[in-house]
């Protein structure tokens, strides 16, 4: 099992960051390789990914969800992974988003990619795209002003 930990500060209130992150259908907008995420039930999601031409589908259960604080998950089919995203209020308009994920590479290609830091770079890039998405959306709409 390999572990990845990455974090990023976003210039939006904690509630805004949490609310955007829990819009699972929007994940393809900032997660490279994620084709689709369907919310099957309140606690189950179905994922379709395509990374380096390899398509995978799997289900994941939300194991813990505390509004404005954390979302944890564990895969129930497909690649073995579990993780948690936590949201830390820095002030009224800034939030630290921290992602911790455990995963088991499948096969030689995944193992080599993991050893070369592919997953860590992927997560870092996804968080940077999340920051860009949420901050741009707030500037365009003025939606984040006044939210606490």
| CATH architectural grouping | 2-Layer Sandwich
Helix content: 25-40%
Gap from first CA to last CA:
38 Å
Order of helices and strands: EHEEEEEEHH
Number of strands: 7
Q: What radius of gyration results from the CA coordinates?
A: 15 Å
The CATH topology is given as: Alpha-D-Glucose-1,6-Bisphosphate, Chain A, domain 4
What is the total number of structural domains? 1
Domain Coenzyme Q-binding protein COQ10 START: 10-129
Protein name: SRPBCC family protein
InterPro entries: COQ10_START (IPR005031), ORF3 (IPR047137), START-like_dom_sf (IPR023393)
List descriptors.
alpha+beta, 43% strand, ORF3, globular, 28% helix, 148 residues, disordered C terminus, 3 helices, SRPBCC family protein, Alpha-D-Glucose-1,6-Bisphosphate, Chain A, domain 4, 7-stranded antiparallel beta sheet
């Amino acid at each position: 099992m390999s572990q990845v930990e990455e974090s990023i500060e976003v210039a939006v209130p904690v509630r805004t960051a949490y609310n955007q992150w829990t819009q699972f259908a929007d994940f393809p907008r900032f997660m490279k390789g994620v084709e689709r995420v369907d919310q099957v039930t309140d606690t189950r999601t179905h994922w379709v990914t395509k990374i380096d031409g390899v398509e995978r589908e799997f289900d994941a259960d939300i194991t813990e969800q505390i509004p404005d604080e954390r979302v944890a998950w564990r895969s129930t089919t497909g690649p073995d992974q579990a993780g948690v995203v936590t949201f830390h209020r820095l002030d009224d308009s800034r939030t630290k988003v921290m992602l911790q994920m455990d995963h088991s590479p499948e096969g030689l290609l995944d193992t080599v990619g993991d050893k070369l830091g592919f997953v860590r770079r992927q997560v870092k890039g996804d968080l940077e795209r999340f920051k860009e998405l949420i901050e741009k959306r707030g500037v365009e709409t003025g939606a984040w002003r006044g939210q606490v």
